[in-house]
From TrEMBL:
Leader peptide range in chain numbering: none
Keyword S-adenosyl-L-methionine: yes
UniProt name for this protein: protein-glutamate O-methyltransferase
Domain of life (superkingdom): Bacteria
Keyword Protein transport: no
Keywords from the UniProt entry: Methyltransferase, S-adenosyl-L-methionine, Transferase
Organism: Desulfurispira natronophila
GO terms under biological process: methylation
Length: 278
């Protein structure tokens, strides 16, 4: 079937809708990407134009189609223990950070957790680096805008390729190896139930979500390679909200392609992609 052509007017309608509902800013250069990523969805829905798809978005009161569209146009690339330098920093600093916390619980938020590799990496890291009595006081929150990807994260299933970079002892200790039931010797690896229980997964919109639901301060926020989809105004507003949730001395970890240069009054850079609340 011939792929439908996305017109400039249709693209402008779609990108305005995504910006107003998710804060994602699509540049002109993303026009072909949007067409390519959404063409299959048009066929699935039996639609003959992107204008019809836009109308379908407007009629979807539950917001499910918006989440589907965001999943389609964003790149959910993640892995276990990505951004190695950040984990090296935590290897040196985690125990002192936990010891100096101004409250009993040590709270970590994985904001934009995608399919779960980041929060599960955090949970494994805590188990490797902290004594059991400190682990018991660690709370991990993992949020994403997509309900579908959160369901995947909560199930905790990963392919052989997903786990191939992990030390063998991590795979043995933190995963159950299961046969897929397919042809050949295909296997999947599922996070151990006791590790999954360390993490609270919730759906949350970082741009339009109600931040007043966070009643306790955070010790660490991971928000990596999420703000690349936002314009400057949206990024600044989100960083200010993060600052309100972090007590002085707490940390914000972002992606290596991101920076907080415009927010120097709120954070100081410890090293590239690692910032501390002033």
């Amino acid at each position: 079937m011939e792929e439908k052509t996305l017109t400039r007017r249709e693209f402008d309608l779609l990108r305005k809708y995504v910006y107003e509902h998710a804060g994602i800013s699509l540049s002109d250069q993303k026009m072909s990407l949007v067409q390519g990523r959404l063409s299959k969805r048009l066929r699935q829905l039996g639609l003959t134009s992107y204008k019809q798809y836009y109308d379908h978005l407007l009629e979807d009161d539950g917001g499910d189609e918006l989440v589907f569209m965001i999943d389609a146009i964003s790149t959910n690339v993640t892995s276990f223990f990505r951004e190695r330098s950040q984990w090296e920093y935590l290897h040196r600093e985690l125990a002192p950070l936990v010891a100096s916390r101004p409250h009993k619980a040590f709270r970590i938020w994985s904001a934009g957790c995608s399919s779960g590799e980041e929060p599960y990496s955090i949970a494994m890291f805590l188990h490797e680096k902290l004594p059991s009595h400190d682990i018991a006081n660690c709370k991990i929150l993992a949020t994403d805008i997509s309900q579908d990807i959160l369901r995947r994260a909560m199930k905790g299933y990963y392919s052989s390729r997903n786990v191939e970079g992990l030390p063998r002892k991590y795979i043995t200790k933190y995963f159950n190896k299961e046969r897929t039931g397919g042809k050949g010797d295909d296997v999947q690896y599922r996070i151990q139930p006791w590790l999954r229980q360390m993490i609270l997964f919730r759906m949350f919109n970082l741009v339009y979500g109600n931040f007043s639901v966070f009643q306790n301060p955070m010790d660490i926020i991971f928000c990596r390679n999420v703000m690349i989809y936002f314009d400057m105004e949206t990024r600044d507003a989100l960083i200010a909200r993060f600052a309100e949730l972090l007590y002085p001395g707490a940390h914000l970890f972002i992606g290596h392609s991101e920076s907080l240069t415009r927010n120097s009054k709120l954070f100081r850079m410890v090293q590239p992609s690692i910032y501390q609340r002033i």
